Amino acid sequence: MASVVRRSGAVKRVKSEDEEDCRKEENRKGEELVSAKIWVPVSLLVSILNAIAGICFSYVSKYKIKAGGMQGAGEFLGNSVCLIIISFQGRYLTPQETSQLSPQSRSPWLKWLYDIYYIRKRDIHGNLLHAQWEQGICMRRALITVVLVILTVLLNLAFVLSLYYATVGFFNSGIMCSLGVTRVIFVSIIFYFMFKQSLKWYEIAGIMILIISVVSILYSGEDKVVNEKQDTQAFFVVLACLSMIITMLFSTMRIAVCKYVSLEVPEINIPALYNFTMAIYAAGMIIYLIVLISQGFEFTLIEFSVGTLGGALYSVAGYLTTYVNVRGKAAIASAIIEGSTLFQTVFDLLLFGRYPNLAQYIGLLLGFGAVLFIILFNSLREK
Q: How far is CA 268 from the centre of its chain?
């Protein structure tokens, strides 16, 4: 009888482990949790917000890292908007998404901390048990928050520096930001190896068209910059390009961390986690701005308003970027978002009269064509 009981207990443990493995395997498949009718338009919105934020940051980029203080003040406001979005999302989640989250994640956003510090295990039927404290798991999850904050600080500082170097080198900010397409490459590679998220032929074709479009814009402006003031400007252009590529690398790493957490710990509210890390960053930058002001840092009201607006838009765009990359197909969402360089070039034309040349016009048309191409085939796929 004892052997039968032991055998029955072993079978239950194996069954529980198998169910847990199946649950993780289903999460690892990389299937969209929301329809492309949602994450594709949101990706387009993020593209526009990033373009406007880039113009704002270019306006105050002469302050270099000090401009990050203004950006932090704006991101504090942006976080408030994100809280509203999270609350709205919590009320109107689809049944498919709701089933992936614990009751704490569907409650007010601060309760996601409960899901980090208290582990909710499952029984053999897959039902969540009473939360338990496990120090080892708690420390690992707390470390995730620290990593996200560090990546946020690094990518924001690198982004501000890239805009400063572009301004000093008389390099069009829209053209420089076209290097953001490198994130599409980083995301495609990392998500393929980490999450087995493969691409269809038409998705790869759309990404390649977008890459060609932004590269054509990049090279169309490079010779003009170098020929005006050879050495100094060329040096700053190189620094601007390197800073932007580093920015995109940090951004990809942050997205990958959020995606990993969403798969391994689905009960954690990823949007709230991202917003929490951004709030920590914004609070730090506001303190930095207060210290600068106390030391005699001066700026006009217009500069502060523009920098704050840029930070707010950048914060909302960053939150939505994390959402569409986690809930949609990351590589395609990144490709659409990187279309912001096209919008930013248009804004430069309208605000500053910087008319694109023929190659830049071709790049614009190719870029918009790539976005429409991706949207069209994704729509046909869902029908």
A: 18
d(CA 239, CA 46): 26
User: How far apart, in Å, are the Cα atoms of 186 and each of 6, 100, 355?
Assistant: 49, 27, 31
Show Cβ contacts of residue 372 under 8 Å, excluding neighbours closer than 6 positions. Answer: none
Distance CA 237, CA 166 (A): 6
Flag whether 20 is in a domain: no
pLDDT tens-digit series, residues 16-25: 444 444 444 4
What is the dihedral sign for C-alpha 331, 333, 337, 339?
A: positive
pLDDT at residue 239 greater than cutoff 80: yes
pLDDT at 334 over 80: no
Q: Give the DSSP letter of residue 179.
A: G
Coil vs helix vs strand at 122: strand
Degrees to nearest 5, angle at CA 157 with 244 and 144: 100
- Asked if 57 and 160 touch (Cβ cutoff 8 Å), the reply is yes
Between helix 301-327 and helix 36-59 the angle, nearest 10°, is 150
Question: Sign of the CA dihedral 56, 286, 323, 83?
Answer: negative
CB-based contact 148:164 (threshold 8 Å): no
Its domain, for residue 49, covers 35-111+146-382
Q: Which has the closest alpha carbon to 344: 201, 158, 218?
A: 218
Q: In total, how many domains does the chain have?
A: 1
User: What DSSP element (H or E) covers 49?
Assistant: helix 36-59
Which tens digits make up the pLDDT trace of 283-296?
777 787 788 778 77
Run of H or E residues at 36: helix 36-59
Structural domain includes residue 121: no
Q: 137 in helix, strand or coil?
A: helix
Place of tokens 């190189």: 238
Is 226 part of a structural domain of the chain?
yes
The CA-atom distances, in angstroms, between 241 and each of 178, 237, 312 are: 10, 6, 24
Provide mean pLDDT across the span 203-217: 73
- Within a domain: 133: no
pLDDT score of 13 more than 60? no
pLDDT surpasses 50 at 5 = no
